[in-house]
Predict the structure.
Amino acid sequence: MTKQFANTGLMLNEPLLWEKGGKGKSAFSMPNQDVEQAFIDKDITGEGPNFPELSEIDIARHYTRLSTWNFGVDTGMYPLGSCTMKYNPKINEKLAALSGWSANPLIAEELNQGALEIMYRLADFLKEITGMDAVSLQPAAGAHGELAGMLICHAYFKSKNSIRKKIIIPDTAHGTNPASAALCGFKPVAVKSGQNGTLSAETVAAVMDEDTAGIMITNPNTLGLFEENIKDIAEIVHSKGGLVYCDGANMNAIMGIAAPGEIGIDVIQLNLHKTFSTPHGGGGPGSGPICVNKKLEPFLPVPRIIKQDNKYIISEDFPQSIGRLHTFFGNFGVMLKAYCYIMSMGDKYLEKASKLAVLNANYIKTSLKEVLELPYDRLCMHECVFSDKKLEQYKVTTLDLAKRLMEYGYHPPTIYFPLIVHGAIMIEPTETESKEEIDNFIEAIKSIVCEAKENPQLLLDAPKICKTRRLDETKAARKPILTEGYRL
Amino acid sequence: MRYLPHSEDDIREMLEKIGAESIEELFCSVPKECIRKKPFKIAEPLTEWELESHIKNLSQKTASSDEYKVFAGAGSYEHYIPATASYLLSRSEFVTAYTPYQPEISQGTLQGIFEYQTLTAQLLGMEISNASLYDGSSALAEALLMAVRITGRKKVALSSAIHPGHRMVAKTYLKPANIEIIEMPYLKNGLTDISSASDSESFAAIAVQSPNFFGCIEDLKKIKESIKDTKTLFIVSFTEPLAYGLYKNPGTCGADIACGEGQSLGIPQSFGGPGLGMFAANKKYMRSIPGRLVGQTNDIDGKRGFVLTLSTREQHIRREKATSNICTNASLCALGASIYMASLGKRNFKKLARLNYDKTEYLKKTLKKEGVKIRFEAPGFNEFIADFGKEFSAKYNELKSKKIIAGIPIKQFYPELDGSYLLCVTETKTKEDLDILSKEITS
């Protein structure tokens, strides 16, 4: 029998903040008023926000209870495809919380050498990992890095007095790609990947012209496959004066194995909150450094950190730069955790991490293709994608399988993405899951497929033991309630 | 390596199942010409203990508030953060979760963000709020893009008293779309001169920051009045939202969009990031808002629950026609801000804002008494510009060696303000700290 880790346990209900507490309570230790009250013009003062009033224990219990309704990587396996939900080391959290980092970023650089050194060295590490020539750490997330990359492409063509209006984006791309390109006025030209799940050079050659800025390609792609024609594709794009942007969200598969800088990539963003182990925080903050080759270096965002006479200096003196992308230097707190991770791993274990990530994904792929339809049956990289074809006969969907999986104690994989696979189930285990954990996961899926055949109602009714059962998303969108207009 | 849980036996058994001889064989889909040529070299891995000592060492090479008396803000503020906020926020169920795509096992994040949206709307006096953006600068840039989408106009007016970093980012975002930016100058009293945008019918938006970069409270009602019968959107930005515990909030003054940086609401300074991009608007613009939104609904048993909603605005559905490309935001920081706002509550939020005001006014008064000129006379909050004179830089450096940071020289952002310094006072400074500062400055 499959181990079913989830249990109803003891889960406490908890109302909204303003449904508890009472007038006059507070959870804040108010500093003393040691100066006299100053005059203030009553015409411009306001009433202040009508916040709920709670005592400290109310706050502590409120958020503790809320937290128990969440599932995180520390709770269990979180095989969300393309999201690289690996373990987030605790020492990194501790070190990011050191009081020394409570520092103002606009104070003279000689007083903040420690922070600047970390950023400088992290950028160097990322250069080494990607084989690119220069890095900016400013972008605050993957999509922000994509935007930076597109702005850089835009500025590059402008510097050549050329305006290019289109950009090639394959059907396996992340949804953020077209949106990022559009912000720079590039019109996406969709191209289809081939029968084997990767893009052919001919497909690109057919659409690449001198009105096209280049291509935005995810490699390894969202099917978990390495774009094997990448070098030829890059050559075609370059021959028409275009640029190759690589979405590096899936870098976890190829550290130490392939270097984007060596295979014709001009610009790539990394997601520190994926490949480099920084936690995702329930939706951020992340960090999406942008790495470029020599040709594009002049366009990187400012300010940049440079090293001069063993000192770290902040420089804005890059006249061709696209400008600034963050109020200060980007998400330093996130960079610091990634720096700690890389220092702990060294090249040796970073490469091993990629290898084990690929091992885990292939192990799951091989084990589950017995029960799920595998549309692209070949070796995969860091993730594998199944379709719902074998589920359809039991009249259950990918969504039903996902919801039932929660009751076995797992976070569901990414579902219904990529769009080119019907009812996609996209599984990315990462390297930090052990064989034991993965075996249990495989057994859970197998058991659910059995249930689909024998007792599909179990899937259709799931989940029954989570904080809520299936939620009415149509209602939420039709009559949106985004805030409660409460009045105490 | 402790983060990699495979034993040699595990690896062997797994390869056997896959039918491969070695892990290297699994990479055979990477063509030979794509295999890395340059040797991969970073460093020898550090032990946990070596790492800790290395990072601690570096963390001591900063002007942290532990060691220094820092009278600087400029968008990154030192406030007391209750231990509960950092402690509760460090719960791994919040920290190690992804964006809540599966609502049944993400209700903690979802309810937390719904509460954040409600408290934010309440704080800013707006009808709705999103789940957060990256930081104050991207929030302003997104607000301007939203105004351009709504009005179809390609020109915006920005106050020159908006945080320079925010203005620069707005420029970066707007430039490739050929959106023209007019910068409105500031007046002698430190407030924005909106007369250069008097032809308001041609603007998608007029944006001002209040309190502005000089710490001055803008006359928001007057600005709103001047554009009230036009389609021009009124954007009010901020870097110090604690001010709305004392002053009228953007909504009360007629803002269509209120956006800015929320770091001062219980989020550590962390050398400038991560911060919290706050974004609130009136309900009629709901479907044009960038970023994630959490909405209330119920489950099939009728029980209350929360989900990500109105995703047809978003990039993963609408692709290039999306209202923004944002995906990851600043969720954990939003939760932190929420814990902070709820911990203070109505009464103490007001009280703390007033205390910040009183302390700032005290320093202003003390400096004035000693003959220092306070540049702008408009009412302010937390920050102000003091004219110490061009020759003050030697003194400024001397104070640095005494571990006192006497503001930020503002000439780097406003060349005409040579010899002027932007000072910041929060509740973290005692009367004694303020007395010492003025004595040191004027001695």
Chain B touches chain A through 208 residues (CB under 8 Å). The CA atoms of residues 363 and 369 of chain B lie 10 Å apart.
